[in-house]
């Protein structure tokens, strides 16, 4: 909620904290009882304490409001904490989709694998973080074929010329990678 709403009502936006502005925007968005709430980077540029409050607020809303929530974020910690399912995107394309627990426990797409290996872990003995080799392509100059192939350790010849579509690899789990197509040429049978 908003502490001291009577006081906040008369304040100008520049007098409010980032977290207070977020709460107000969330309240405005929910005031018309939407079927879908799209939250685009709701915790970005907030300090850790305010981030935790916003995450807690969203968690309570998800339980009590009859709206679907679509969360757009680069923060995988927020995804792990708040989401049931996730779609991982690279260069504008969904490369893996499914239940958060399955994807975080056993990623299938090479980008998802690399992304999760970049996260520091408390029990990790190695001090150096892993990095995905190469650079993200410029949006005006995407490679033909799979957009991740220049950085992929598993790239096949087919990846140079064709973009793999999402295929179901198990219950509620989809991946866009020719490694998971049924024959060695990356073709679905």
Automatic annotation (TrEMBL):
Keywords: ATP-binding, Cell inner membrane, Cell membrane, Membrane, Nucleotide-binding, Translocase, Transport
Location(s), subcellular: Membrane
Domain Oligopeptide/dipeptide ABC transporter C-terminal: from-to ranges: 95-159
InterPro entries from the UniProt entry: ABC_Ni/Peptide_Import, ABC_transporter-like_ATP-bd, Oligopep_ABC_C, P-loop_NTPase
Residue ranges of domain ABC transporter in the record: 7-44
Coiled coil: none
GO biological processes: peptide transport
GO cellular component terms attached to this protein's record: membrane
Name of the featured protein: ABC transporter domain-containing protein
Organism: marine sediment metagenome
């Amino acid at each position: 909620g908003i502490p001291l709403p009577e006081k906040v009502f008369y304040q100008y936006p520049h007098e409010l904290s980032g977290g207070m502005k977020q709460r107000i925007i969330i309240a405005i968005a929910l005031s018309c009882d939407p079927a879908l709430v799209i939250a685009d980077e709701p915790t970005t540029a907030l300090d850790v304490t305010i981030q935790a409050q916003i995450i807690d607020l969203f968690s309570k809303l998800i339980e009590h409001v009859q709206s679907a929530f679509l969360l757009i974020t680069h923060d995988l910690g927020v995804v792990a904490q708040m989401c049931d399912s996730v779609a991982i995107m690279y260069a504008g394309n969904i490369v893996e989709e499914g239940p958060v627990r399955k994807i975080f426990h056993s990623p299938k797409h090479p980008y998802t694998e690399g992304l999760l290996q970049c996260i520091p872990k408390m029990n990790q003995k190695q001090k150096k973080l892993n990095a995905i080799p190469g650079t993200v392509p410029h949006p005006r100059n995407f490679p033909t074929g799979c957009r991740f192939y220049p950085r992929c350790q598993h790239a096949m010849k087919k990846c140079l010329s064709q973009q793999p579509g999402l295929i179901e690899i198990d219950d509620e789990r989809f991946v866009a990678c020719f490694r998971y197509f049924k024959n060695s040429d990356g073709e679905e049978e």
